[in-house]
């Protein structure tokens, strides 16, 4: 089995991107993680994928062991970091996978640099119109008619933002362990040492507020949500595969079903009936078979 190597790369924009690399083969696979995570969440997947695939898993700026010198305000900003990494590593094109937040990042990568993406794989991705947040009533029930999108309102959110920002500030691993147990690992929990490494990665995040604002204001369609859409989805011409867990408590499966209607290219939607938000962990064998076929076909 090929060994996973951990490295860092200095980018032209002054940032340093950390990444994991499993070197072999002429087919390249690029893995982009979600919010409150890093490339470490892909280690088990990397170890179990075909050794003949050249695999990169990156830490986005502000996550894991990557730097965050330049404040980002748009999901497109994180996508441009990925493009710079691909340029400096001479990755001409790849099958590109994005999980959750990473789905928005790789959609922007595919829209702005379509020559870099052979096949776009979206895992429980943020929707094409972003991740909505709302004001709350006195009983902490969301008021669906009152969406929020400005930083000064988002930072006051009592249900998500205030507790998470406090948890990061206090480096409270117990808090995040409990949150992930209820939301991400609601069906299957990793082994104790692996779980601990995940929580350590979460506590390294430097951009939770910035990326939350960017996710809420993400809209790659031509329609209006909380903001007018960019319409860049029309630039996505390569095949798209959207994979979603039916029991996802973070991004409801309906988000994926609604989102695929906006792609003008060939799009496959695959439902994992026994998975939550991390389907590549919940039903790993099934996921690996699908991903390896996509890579081999490209």
TrEMBL record:
Gene3D superfamilies given in the database record: alpha/beta hydrolase
SUPFAM superfamilies hit by this protein: alpha/beta-Hydrolases
Domain AB hydrolase-1 span(s) in chain numbering: 28-283
Entry keyword set: Hydrolase
One Pfam family it belongs to: Abhydrolase_1
PANTHER family named in the record: AB HYDROLASE SUPERFAMILY PROTEIN YCLE, MONOACYLGLYCEROL LIPASE
The protein, known as: Pimeloyl-ACP methyl ester carboxylesterase
Organism: Peptoniphilus stercorisuis
């Amino acid at each position: 089995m090929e060994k996973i190597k951990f490295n860092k790369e200095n980018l032209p924009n002054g940032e340093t991107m950390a990444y994991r690399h499993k070197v072999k083969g002429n087919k390249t696979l690029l893995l982009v993680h979600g919010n409150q995570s890093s490339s470490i969440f892909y280690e088990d997947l990397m170890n179990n994928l075909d050794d003949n695939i050249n695999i990169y898993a990156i830490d986005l700026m502000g996550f894991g062991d990557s730097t965050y010198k330049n404040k980002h305000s748009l999901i497109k900003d994180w996508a441009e970091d990925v493009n710079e990494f691909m340029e400096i590593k001479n990755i001409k094109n790849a099958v590109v996978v994005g999980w959750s937040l990473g789905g928005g990042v790789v959609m922007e990568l595919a829209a702005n640099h379509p020559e870099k993406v052979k096949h776009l794989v979206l895992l429980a991705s943020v929707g094409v119109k972003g991740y909505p947040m709302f004001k709350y009533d006195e009983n902490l029930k969301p008021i669906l008619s009152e969406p929020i999108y400005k930083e000064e309102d988002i930072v006051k959110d009592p249900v998500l933002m205030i507790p998470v920002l406090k948890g990061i500030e206090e480096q409270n691993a117990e808090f995040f362990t409990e949150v992930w147990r209820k939301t991400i690992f609601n069906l299957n929990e990793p082994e104790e040492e692996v779980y601990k490494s995940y929580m350590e990665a979460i506590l390294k995040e430097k951009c939770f507020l910035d990326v939350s604002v960017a996710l809420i204001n993400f809209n790659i369609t031509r329609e209006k949500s909380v903001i007018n859409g960019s319409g860049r989805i029309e630039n996505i011409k390569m095949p798209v595969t959207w994979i979603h867990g039916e029991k996802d408590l973070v991004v409801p499966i309906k988000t994926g079903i609604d989102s695929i209607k906006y792609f003008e290219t060939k799009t496959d939607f695959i439902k994992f009936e026994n998975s939550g938000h991390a389907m590549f962990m919940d039903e790993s064998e099934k996921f690996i078979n699908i991903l390896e076929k996509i890579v081999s076909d490209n």
